[in-house]
Structure formats: C-alpha cells, structure tokens
C-alpha cells in the first residue's frame, strides 16, 4: 500500500500552517518529518491519519490494504495516552473494542501484539508500575494490535530519558526491518531521524512547505558503525544548516505568541 499526499494545505483561522505538501510513502518505508517549531509537522500527521480534514489537497492510498488490517493508519503519541485503571493488556485491547471481531480474535491479537513488543510478562501490570519506556512500548503494542499498514508517530521518544530512547530506537528498527511496517515519523531530533529514516522530509517555517527531501542510503542496520557515522555526519550538518535560521525565527515567534 502506498500513501499519496497531493497539494495539502491547511489553516487555523487566519493562520496558514501548511501549503502545497506533496509526498509519496512506499510500502515498508520510514519517512521522518523535521522542521522548526510550528511548521505544521503534527498537523500534517493528523491530516494523514484522518483526524483533520485539509483545507486543500487530498490524502489517498494506492494498492490494497493488508487483509488483516483493522485500521490502515494508527498513531503512536508522545504522551503514551494510557488509561491508568486498565492493565497493559486492557490498554492494548482498547484499540479493538469498536471493531466487530470475536472475543477469540481479540485475545489472539492482544497476545500477539504483546509478544511482538516484548510485553508478555507485563500483561497484568498497570501503567503506574511501568517506566516511561515500558509505557511507550504499551502504546506501540496498542498501535500494532490493529495491524496497520502505516504507523503515524508523533515524537514518540521525546518524553523518554536517553537510555530508554536508545533502547526503543533499536526495538523500532527490529520491528520495521522484520515486518516492514511503513511509518511517518515526526521528530525534532536530527540524530534520531538519521538513525531511523529511509528519507527525511525538511519542512520550512510556517506555513510549512517541503524545502528538501534527503535520502539516507546507508542501511539502518549499519548506521551505528564508525564508518557509517562518518558518512552520516555531513548529512547531519546539511539538515541542521537547512533549518537553523528558520528554527531561530520560529523559536522567537513561539515565545512572543
């Protein structure tokens, strides 16, 4: 299944936040969205996932949705969004409750999602008993339980400490490379984008327009090697130089607002 964005534009009242966004996401591809604060990254993610209707343009898919997918798109958010009175299994099962599936299939999907993200032994724990990294794993399992074609990830690691962030990046890659789940990944962290993405889309300051699309050709499995790190360093500099001046202006706009 291929995701197609054509001429996406959006405003909040008189504030223009996106303009002329055109992009394609192939099956199994990971695309990172970066740009200065307020450039419309999260708005674009919401439009892709159907939470917002764009003022202009369209979102389309080409090809068949996987037959076992209950939702073609599903979100993983920064703040975990877990229900504290539900167990790990109960939070994962929440994503299935409005789907007309049998209790047996619901149980099978929950157990499979917990197993895929390494949460089987924590199925009866409550969110307050878990670390931040473990809570985000629950959020990922909840997204996977509907077997999406595309994950929409809105800064999913930004609330975590450095150690948890590194561990989860490795788990993301194992999941994506093993099962080829496509993803649109919003982040402010350039190193994170370079570690995970096949392509990095650089958005301008508001209204967000595509300034550049930067391919990362080194296979993800090899990017931690010293030789790969040396090749990635110029890409990091290129990305930072591409957003630095606009990020400074956007930061002042946010503060003044």
Low-confidence stretches: none
Quote the distance from N terminus to C terminus. 40 Å
- The dominant shape is globular
- Fraction in helix: 25-40%
What is the gyration radius calculated from CA atoms?
Answer: 18 Å
Biggest sheet record? 6 strands, mixed
* Tally of DSSP β-strands: 9
In spatial order, strands of the major sheet run 5-6-7-3-8-9
- Percent in strands: 15-25%
Mean model confidence by pLDDT? 88
N to C succession of SSEs:
EEEHEEHHHEHEHEEH
SSE map:
Layout: E1 2-12, E2 15-25, E3 30-34, H1 41-48, E4 56-62, E5 73-76, H2 88-93, H3 103-116, H4 132-144, E6 150-154, H5 162-179, E7 182-186, H6 190-196, E8 199-203, E9 210-215, H7 226-256
Please supply descriptive tags for the structure shown above.
257 residues, alpha/beta, six-stranded mixed sheet, three-stranded antiparallel sheet, 7 helices, 23% strand, globular
What does this structure look like?
- This protein is globular.
- Helix 3 packs across helix 4.
- The longest helix is centred in the last third of the chain and has 31 residues, at 226-256.
- It has seven helices and nine strands.
- The strands form two sheets. The chain has a six-stranded mixed β-sheet with strand order 5-6-7-3-8-9, sandwiched between helices.
- The protein has helices at 41-48, 88-93, 103-116, 132-144, 162-179, 190-196, 226-256, and strands at 2-12, 15-25, 30-34, 56-62, 73-76, 150-154, 182-186, 199-203, 210-215.
- Helices cover 38% and strands 23% of the residues.
- Strand 8 and strand 9 (210-215) form a beta hairpin.
- The model has no long low-confidence stretch (mean pLDDT 88).
- The protein has 257 residues and is α/β, with parallel strands linked by helices.
């Amino acid at each position: 299944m291929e995701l197609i964005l054509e001429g996406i534009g959006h405003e909040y009242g008189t504030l223009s936040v996106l303009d002329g966004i055109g992009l394609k996401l192939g099956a199994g591809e990971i695309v990172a969205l970066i740009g200065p604060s307020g450039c419309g990254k999260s708005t674009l993610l919401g439009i892709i996932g159907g939470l917002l209707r764009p003022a202009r343009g369209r979102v389309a898919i080409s090809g068949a949705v996987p037959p076992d997918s209950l939702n073609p798109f599903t979100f993983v958010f920064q703040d975990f969004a877990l229900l504290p009175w539900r167990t790990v299994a109960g939070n994962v099962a929440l994503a299935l409750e409005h789907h007309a599936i049998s209790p047996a299939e619901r149980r099978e999907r929950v157990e499979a999602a917990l197993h895929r993200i390494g949460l089987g032994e924590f199925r009866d724990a409550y969110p307050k008993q878990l670390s931040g990294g473990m809570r985000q794993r629950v959020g990922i399992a909840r997204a996977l339980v509907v077997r999406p074609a595309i994950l929409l990830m809105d800064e999913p690691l930004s609330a975590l400490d450095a150690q948890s962030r590194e561990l989860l990046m490795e788990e993301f890659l194992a999941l994506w490379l093993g099962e080829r789940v496509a993803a649109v990944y919003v982040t402010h962290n350039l190193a994170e984008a370079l570690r995970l993405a096949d392509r990095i889309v650089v958005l301008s300051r508001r209204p967000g327009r595509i300034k550049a699309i930067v391919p990362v050709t080194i296979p993800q499995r090899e990017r931690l090697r010293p030789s790969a790190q040396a090749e990635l360093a110029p890409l990091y500099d290129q990305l930072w130089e591409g957003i630095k001046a606009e990020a400074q202006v956007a930061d002042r706009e946010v503060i003044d607002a």
